[in-house]
Amino acid sequence: MATAPPPPIPRQHRAGAGEADLLADAQAGDALAAHRLGRLYAQRGDRAAARHWWERAAGAGNVDSAFNLGMWHEKHGTLDEAISWYELAAGTGDAEAAVNLATLLLEQKGDAPGARRWYETAATAGSRRAARRLALLCEDAGELGKARDWHRRAALDGDLASAHDLGFLGYAAGEEGEARHWWEFAARGGHAEAAHHLGLLMHALRDPQSAEVLYRLAAQHDHPGSASQLGGIALARRDLRTARAWFERAARAGRVDDQRMAGFVCVELEDSAAASHWFGRAAASGDAESAYNFGLLLIAEHADLNGGEHWFRQAAAAGHYRAALELGTLLSVTGKPAEAEQWLSAPPKPCWDRSAEPELAARAELAVAASGRRGGSTLTVPELTEILGTWDVLTRRLREPLDPVTWLTEKSGMHASAVEHLSSVRATLIRPGTAPWPTPTEIERVLATARDLRKRLGLS
């Protein structure tokens, strides 16, 4: 749920009279004078006097004083009184009071229906903030048509976050033209996430040139994901120094995958100190591949067998196949044959380490971002990439009119329903909108099918 902005400063009117005149007029029952006098005391820090005169003014029908009292109680008084004063102001058609009232009802009282009613009142009166909050409430209620209507109203009024959300709603519905339109709209306004996701969409549509332009636009706003993508593009061109600069930029944002990639590029550039730094940081965060490579570097560059053993052990315990073999070999030459035999005789199963095509990796990242919005499924890019990559490797040589599901079932001996499920999930990731996003449980089952298929067909 998006956090509400801080309460606005108390409203004021330009005073045309001195304090003595305001006091006399206020005491005589002038509501506007009482309001101005309350504002004067608020500026001086006399909260009690400000409250007194705003209550006098609000009681005489001054809406701005009712609003200010809502704000006063929100900061210094009680929640119920804040709600009461905001409700009084909102009831006269004050959109800003309606937004603040709705926010308190939602975030402090948990009253979503009441909040929605007041957000709708404010949004109908032209409040951009209310339109966005209302759109998010509609999303959470599964009312996607209404959510898109309110997001559109907010976006056209300049809310780039709603434009970004419209892109995702379009993408999840299979409307890639709509997604492209709104992400471009937000990106032109300086929304880095929108530029990044539009870059991914262009990559998925096999337009790497446009994708690179968009990644650069997002990277100008320090988007680490786009820096990572630009590192991968430079690496594919064998421009190692540029790749290093981009990967390190992303790595400094704490992205473990990019810390590992920075380490690999530094190895190729023969900068072992920098490689050790990045592998060490990623290994300390629990990355098994980095722990394995850090162990190799410690032994190769510093003859540090104890350090190498430590990091091999960390990686092997996390299921890293090659680390287990290296650990077993190291233990056998350092006088620990019994433990060495344990690792060498029963190492973990090798993991899938093939790189997927860029368009498949882009689809995986978009699916994770889209499905994870508003507290959705917690899918992971590596798992989805493995699913898409497995299907691609197993079927890329097939020629029509062969049906991939039938062919894989016959070749592997697996049950057709398992292969069909894999095919269905893959189709959802490649062509969003054809079915709901897969759940983590589905992904777990489909991954098991993909790995079993590779084993049966000799690709693991």
TrEMBL record:
InterPro entries: Sel1-like (IPR006597), Sel1_AlgK (IPR050767), TPR-like_helical_dom_sf (IPR011990). It holds the Pfam family Sel1. SUPFAM superfamilies: HCP-like (SSF81901). PANTHER family: ERAD-ASSOCIATED E3 UBIQUITIN-PROTEIN LIGASE COMPONENT HRD3, SEL-1-LIKE PROTEIN. This is Sel1 repeat family protein. It comes from Acrocarpospora macrocephala.
